[in-house]
Amino acid sequence: MSFTTIGAKNSRRVKFWEEALAKKEQKHTFINYDDVLAQKPLELNGSLSVRITSPGEDFELYKKILALGDFPNAENLVLDKGLILPNSNWHVGWKKLLNTIETRCDESVRIMNAPTSIALAFDKLQSQKLLQLRKVKTPKIYLESVQSYDHLMDFLKSEKIHQIFIKPYHGSSASGIMALRISSQKQMLYTTIAKSGK
After folding, report:
1. 10, 16, 7: which is closest to 35 by C-alpha?
2. Helix/strand/coil for 113
3. Residue 43: CB partners within 8 Å, gap ≥ 6?
4. Which mean pLDDT values do the consecutive 10-residue runs of the chain (198 residues) have?
C-alpha cells in the first residue's frame, strides 16, 4: 500500500510523517491544501492510504479557509499575533475543505482519519458533549455560551466559582484558551496569546 498525505506546505507534521514512512521504505506522495482548494486533479484512487493533517501555522492557508467560510475580505488580512479571528468562519471553511477531500476520494481509498471525525475534533463543545454521552469523564460545562464579561462574572459569583477555563468553540491546540482565577482582591487571566513583537 502507498501513502498520500494532504497537508500544508512546510508543515512539521508532514515532515515527521514523511520521515517515519521513509524509515519503513513506504511509498509516499504529498498533496498541498492549495491544490485541493484550486480544484486541481488529485490522484486519490487505488490501493491508497490517505492521511489528512492539520492546516498548521500557514497563515495564507488560514486566510483561504476563512474565505471559504465566508469571512469578509479574508484575503486582505495581515498576520497579527494575539488577534483571534472569528473561529466559526474558519470552522465552516474547514468543514467544506474536508468534505471536498472526502468526495474526491475513490471508494477504494482508505482514509486514516475520517473528515467527519476531524471536523468534530475542531468543535470543542460538541466533542465534549459526545464524550459525556459516551460516559467519558470530562470537565463540567458550566456555560455553553458567554455573552459578555458581566454575564460571566454574574454567573461565577452566583455559583461561587473562583477559577474556570474559557475556550473558543472552534480551533486546534490551545489557541485562544484562557484560565481565569478570581479572588476578593484581584482577577488573574492566563492565556496562550503570543506577543506581536511591535
Report:
1. 7
2. coil
3. 4, 29
4. 90 92 92 93 86 89 94 91 81 95 91 93 92 94 92 94 91 80 90 61
